[in-house]
Design a protein that fits this description.
4% of the residues lie in helices and 31% in strands. It has 1 helix and 8 strands, in the order E-E-E-E-E-E-E-H-E.
């Protein structure tokens, strides 16, 4: 797993920014299961007990072969990346969690993209505004 930047998990939501996290998994029979715990941030005090917070669905990428002006190397056993008008863009990201070298990746369409819902909603408890300091 690689995070885009340092994450202060104790910082409240109001003063935090979004993060990108790369999680690597090996395919077995063209399937992969990844479980990732989420730390949901403290929310600002509110008039209600809960705040609905959107959580973006993950983007799934598969490593691919991309060398402009070269024929794909069949020894890699990777699908060929394309970067045409009707295909997803090719991304250059670390090959694995060591980040020792970079590889090409292409997005894969997931069930959330097929249904048109790319966010989940989580209700997070909030402190109440009308509570006073003693």
């Amino acid at each position: 797993m690689i995070a885009s930047s340092y994450m202060d998990t104790e910082k409240p939501a109001a003063v935090s920014s979004a993060h990108t996290v790369l999680v690597y998994s090996r395919l077995q029979d063209y399937r992969a299961t990844v479980e990732l715990p989420l730390h949901l941030r403290y929310q600002a005090p509110s008039d209600s007990l809960y705040k609905a917070v959107p959580v973006l669905a993950p983007r799934v990428l598969v490593q691919c072969w991309y060398q402009p002006d070269e024929i794909a190397n069949s020894a890699t056993h990777l699908p060929v990346c394309t970067n045409g008008k009707d295909t997803p863009s090719v991304l250059k990201l670390p090959c694995d969690a060591t980040a020792a070298k970079y590889c090409y990746w292409t997005p894969v369409k997931t069930d959330t993209e097929t249904t048109g819902s790319n966010t989940l909603q989580v209700d997070i408890p909030c402190g109440l505004k009308d509570h006073t300091i003693l």
